[in-house]
Amino acid sequence: MKTTDASSPQARIQLPQQHGVLVLNKPSGPSSARCLTALKRLGQKKIGHAGTLDPMASGVLLVLLGHATKISGHLLADGGKTYRGQLRLGMVTDSWDKEGTVQAELPWQHVTEEDVRRGIAAWLGRSAQPVPPISAAKHGGQPLYKLARAGREVPQKVKDIEISLADVLEIELPLARFRVSCSSGTYIRSLAHSLGMRLQCGAVLTELTREYSHPFSLAQAHDLQDILDNPESLPDRVLPVTAALPHWPAVTVAAADEPALRNGRPLPCRIGDACGGRAVLLSEAGTPLALAQRGLAEGQECWTVLRGLWN
């Protein structure tokens, strides 16, 4: 990613705050935070993302702008992700990818292609995955990578994950290319590390591209540098909040109901609002107002606000 000089036209452009989702094709190299900082300089002060990518990784990064920053937890909880990656046998690093400090180089010649195929297939299903010691996962309020860099002991943490797809794309030992679909929060470099442990030769992740992050694919993503070179195009690239929650039923409310919603008061359901106990997106004249859930208040069926989407 090129750096933008403070005197350049791009650096001086201040666009109105956008509200919605930008499907970004993150390049390999910069951190997710650095990519967001570049967009923030275009006037997007209220900005976040739904699921970070390591600096080495590229692909789909969901950038949330304005009101959309309030739906990040729902995006992370609702859907899985798909990655295409490459691993290398015969190496162990402290980060479990090629960016880390090499801790060991081990012989891998005893491993066959069939061994690798079986090992990748073994990723399928539910499991408790070890969290990489060099990661943003926290212990005692501190990211693990900060503990490691300070020379402090890093506790071994695990998290429950589910892999629904684990395909071998190509094997040319000591390299293997693969595709996986997984639950949100899965560490792909942990999958590579676990394979290396199983094959008793070590393994590190060398390439990673996120091809899908619910509900968006790489085909819908915009290159960061293209946006920085053409900042005036940003508004046309931002998708509405409704596009990020395609499976949430939409319920239209009257303009007169907005003050009650803003004050957190339950809103009585109307006849025909048949959504059961599911969460819904409340809108007025096509403008998303809140995420809400149907429940009872004083014996009456009402919409209770889960998250307001106003300022």
Question: Can you walk me through this structure?
Answer:
The protein has 311 residues and is of the alpha+beta class. Helix content is 21%, strand content 36%. Strands 1, 2, 3, 4, 7, 10, 11, 12, 13 and 14 form a 10-stranded mixed beta sheet that branches. The protein has a 5-stranded mixed beta sheet with strand order 15-17-18-19-16. A hairpin with an 8-residue loop joins strand 2 and strand 3 (58-65). Helix 4 crosses helix 6. The chain is elongated, with a radius of gyration of 22 Å. 35% of the residues are buried.
Overall shape: elongated
Structural class: alpha+beta
Figure out the total of helices: 10
The number of E-state strands comes to 19
Rounded mean pLDDT is: 89
- Characterize the main sheet: 10 strands, mixed
Topology diagram in text:
Layout: H1 9-12, E1 20-26, H2 32-40, E2 47-49, E3 58-65, H3 72-78, E4 81-89, E5 91-93, E6 102-105, H4 113-121, E7 125-130, E8 138-139, E9 142-143, H5 144-149, E10 158-172, E11 175-182, H6 188-199, E12 203-213, E13 216-217, E14 222-223, H7 224-229, H8 234-237, H9 241-244, E15 250-252, H10 258-262, E16 267-268, E17 279-284, E18 287-297, E19 300-308
Parallel strand pairs: 1-14, 3-12, 15-17
Antiparallel strand pairs: 1-3, 2-3, 4-11, 4-12, 5-6, 7-10, 8-9, 10-11, 12-13, 16-19, 17-18, 18-19
